[in-house]
Prior knowledge:
Ubiquitin Ligase Nedd4, Chain: W, Chitinase A, domain 3, four-stranded antiparallel sheet, 4 helices, globular
Amino acid sequence: MSETGLPPSWEIRISKSRGIPYYFHPQTQESRWDSPPGTDSEKLKAYMATKFSSSGGSDQNSKPQGEKIRAAHLLVKHEGSRRPSSWKDSEITRTKDEARDILRGHEQRIRAGEITLADLAKTESDCSSARKGGDLGYFGRGDMQKEFEDAAFGLSPGEMSGIVETASGLHLIERIS
C-alpha cells in the first residue's frame, strides 16, 4: 500500500474538465471518481487533505513548472474506448474503423478550410471539452495520455496533427500555443 492508501498501481490524477482529483490505473486504463476497492480510506483521507486541500488551489499549482502548451482536440470514441459513452451518446457502438472514417472526414473539412477544429468540436467531439471548442487549456508533460502528449508537444502553434489514437479514442489535435 502506498502513502496514498490506494491499492498497487492506482494513481491520483486531476480531471482536465472538472479540475478535481480522480483515480486511475495505468495498466488497465480504468479511471473512476470513487476510490477503488481495497483502498485504506483513512490513509487516503489524510493524503488528500495534505495534497489537495482547498486552501491555495489544487495540487496542479504546486507541480514543478515545466514547459506547458495549450491545445484543443476533437475526439471520436468507439466501442473499444476506455469509456464508450459521451455527453452526446450514452452508449457508443461504432467500430474503431468507423470512428477513423468519421475523423478522416472531419480532418478533410478542416484542412480544406471549410470549418475550424474548434467549431467542429462543439458539435462532433465526444469529449466534454466540446463546449469549449475542444480547448483543453494549458498542460505539461505527464498530464495527458502519452500518445496524446507526444503528438501535441510535437506540433508548432497553429498546427494540427493527423489522427492520434489513445485509450480514450481517436483525436485530431490542434496546438494553440
